[in-house]
Structures are given as structure tokens and as C-alpha cells.
Amino acid sequence: MIKFSFTKIVNGELRAIDLENSVNQDITTRVLKEIAKDSMGGWLALPKKYDVGELVKIKEAAKKIQDESEYLVCIGIGGSYLGHRAVIEALNPKSETKVVYAGNSLSKRELDKVIEEIGDADFSVNVISKSGTTLEPAIAFETFKKKLIEKYGEKEAPSRIYATTDAKKGTLHDEAVAEGYTRFVVPDNIGGRYSVLTAVGMLPMAVAGVNIDKLLEGAAEAMEGVVGEAAKYAWTRYTLGGEKNYDTEVFASFEPATMYFNEWLKQLFGESEGKNKQGVFPAAVIYSTDLHSMGQYMQDGRRDLFETIIDYPTDEMNEKVVRAVEIAHNTGGIPVLSLKPSSYDEEGFGELIYFFELACAISAKLFGVNPFDQPGVEAYKAELNKLLGN
Ligand code: PA5
């Protein structure tokens, strides 16, 4: 199971600090009960309560997409996008069908790049939006719907569209029902950034060749195995960020392929904690690349940040760099936290996803904010819709 440690230089040596006393067990137990009872806490029991019928449907759809298409265009933003991209990029699995992404910005250049890459190849579309009304994916979906109709005709096009959205409401839901798209549900009790293990992430990951059974197994094992470590990590970051005024947490990974996992972490913590003027600002770096750029600031810039190294199992050379960074940054006056996942594969990422979801929810609760809403994001969406006269 994942191991969390907090190291400090003591008498010139790097030592792991005993963290048992940093966790207030009574508060942790109360917070865990609150999360389990929360109307948006459905992700907590998900790995062990997975609907077998849903999993079969996901695998069948993935097989059909793989048989029919060289590309799957995944349209979505934020929680409807980052989690599956993080796992796909990290594991780089083998599949005849390549997953490409659209609708995660309003850039026409990015959209054109995807269209150009697909060219004349066969493709299908997975449009993912819980609300079914988010502007960026809606615009990209209109474009790809037209492309599907141009290529396959009005009759065949809907059979190549997979809509992952609310079970009962929303523009996308209504259209999917009317047009007969294959539908997958984002459960009511699971919000975007906690939804990677639902159909939101599972369908694209299955198409890309990720072993989704193993991913779920890793997450299911984490349900029992990581609670203690997640609590220690949450309390440590709360103590540093909340009581000692360290404003920023820098997630550091030594595996370039985990860049999108860093992005998912930034979203998870930023959107869950950053409210009521609370939280720790989540930033991320990829080492050793960024040691030659951000490394200077980390070593010697303002001392208002702490660093959380995600120490993925890796080769010997990388391990040496990890130790060197721990010692150098500790010496430079930065609190260094370290997380060691058990493996770099589907099970390891299942474990890691569950660990961070749990740690983030506990941490947000310690900061006294609701981990599951995002009023700031909604505010932006409302303002944009006003400006567009919608
Ligand atoms: O985590 C969240 O809730 C957000 O990041 C949403 O996932 C994001 O805003 C996209 O929303 P939707 O899935 O409704 O299109």
C-alpha cells in the first residue's frame, strides 16, 4: 500500500518524522462519517459497490469503438476529462484505437489540430458532461457531430456517439435520448473531479487499453488500506497550510508521463479546497526537467511553500535524484512530504486515485470547506453565458 512520510534534516541527516501524534483521531472519525453521509460522497464506496452491469456495458461499448474506429474523440473539461487522460498518459497502454481530446478549451487551433490528426480515419465520439450544458464541450461536440454526419450520414452518425451525462436531466441527456446515442450515467452522488472511476473515465480508459478491472481492484484495496496514510497526509498539509501559513503545495513527480496526473491533482485540490479564502494553492513540477528551471526557486526562493514528492517506483538513477532533491530542498528550508505508491500500473493508479480523493476530502473538511461544490467555477460559467447572451 501507499506509504506517506514527512522527512526533516536532524543533526545533518534526513530523518522520517513520526506522524502518529499529528492526527486527531476523533476529528478524523467525525470527518470520515460526514463524507460517507454527504449527498456527494458516492465515490467513497464506489470501488467495492461497482454495478457489474455497468462495467459490462462499458466493456462492450469499448470493444465496439475499438472495432469500428481508429480514433475516439473524448469531449469534456475539468472533472469530465482530466482523470482518464492522467491514467492513459501515465500508462501508455496498447490499443488499435487512439483516444484524442477536444472541448477542454475554446481554442480553435486546438480543435483544428484534432480534426487534422483524424483526417479521413474512422472515428467515434464520447461526449462527457455531467451538467450537459458546459460551453467548451458543447461547442466541440457540435463540430464533431457535423463531421460524423458528413462522413457517415444522418442515420449512422448517432450510433458512433456515446454520451456520458446525468441520468435524467440536461440538454445533453435530452438530446441523447431523442437521437438514440449510447448513454452512460454520471451518478448524482459523484461530482466531476471524483468521477474518474465512473463511466466518465472508465469508457475512454477501456478504449485506450487500460485494464479497468485492475484499476478498480487497486482502488478497492485502497478503501481499507490507505485510510490511515491519507489521514496523516491530510493532517500534515493542514498543519503546514492552515496553521503554519505555507500557502502553496508543489506536487513533484519524476516521471514525465505523469504530467496529467499532476493536472488532475491540481484540479482535485484547487476546486475542492479553494473556497471561503481557505486552502493551499496546488502547483506541480516534473523533475528532473524542472530542476533546471523551477529548481532554483524551490531551493532558494520565498519559503512559503512545501513540496509533496510522488515517488513512483522507478529506475535506480531516478531514485538517486529523488533522494538528492529531498536532502537539498530540506536543507533549503522546505518541508518535504513524500508519497510512495505501491506500483506503476493499473492497480497502483487505482490506489493512488482513491488515496488522493480521500485525502483531499479529509483535508478540505479540516479547512472547514465543502469538498464537493465549486461555486467559483459556476460563477465563471454564469458570467460567460451572460456575455454570450445565453
Ligand atoms: O469537478 C467538477 O465538478 C468540474 O471540474 C466539472 O467537471 C467541469 O466544470 C465540467 O462540468 P460538466 O461535466 O458539467 O461539463
Tags for this entry?
15% strand, 14 helices, six-stranded mixed beta sheet, Rossmann fold, binds 5-phosphoarabinonic acid, 2 domains, 390 residues, five-stranded parallel beta sheet, 50% helix, globular
Description:
- There is one protein chain.
- The protein is α/β, with parallel strands linked by helices and about 400 residues long.
- Strands 2-1-11-10-8-9 form a six-stranded mixed sheet, with helices on both faces.
- The chain contains 14 helices and eleven strands.
- It folds into two domains: about 5-35 and about 215-365, Rossmann fold, CATH 3.40.50.10490; about 45-210, Glucose-6-phosphate isomerase like protein, domain 1 (Rossmann fold, 3-Layer(aba) Sandwich), CATH 3.40.50.
- The protein is globular.
- Helix 1 (about 25-35) crosses helix 13, helix 2 (about 50-70) crosses helix 7 (about 200-210) and helix 8 (about 210-225) packs across helix 13.
- The mean pLDDT is about 95.
- Helix content is about 50%, strand content about 15%.
The biggest beta sheet is recorded as: 6 strands, mixed
H/E order of the elements?
Answer: EEHHEHEHEHEHEHHHEHEHEHEHH
Going across the biggest sheet, name each strand in turn.
Answer: 2-1-11-10-8-9
| Share in β-strands | 15-25%
Structural class by sheet pairing and helices:
alpha/beta
Shape: globular
Query: What is the CATH topology descriptor of the largest domain?
Result: Rossmann fold
Number of strands: 11
Total helical segments = 14
What is the helix fraction of residues, given as a range? Answer: 40-55%
The bound ligands are: 5-phosphoarabinonic acid
CATH architecture of the largest domain: 3-Layer(aba) Sandwich
Query: What is the overall pLDDT average?
Result: 95
The N- to C-terminal Cα distance equals 49 Å
Which residues form runs of ≥5 with pLDDT under 50?
Answer: none
CATH class category name of the largest domain = Alpha Beta
How many structural domains can be distinguished in the coordinates? 2
What would you give as the CATH superfamily of the largest domain? Glucose-6-phosphate isomerase like protein, domain 1
Radius of gyration: 21 Å
Assembly category: single chain
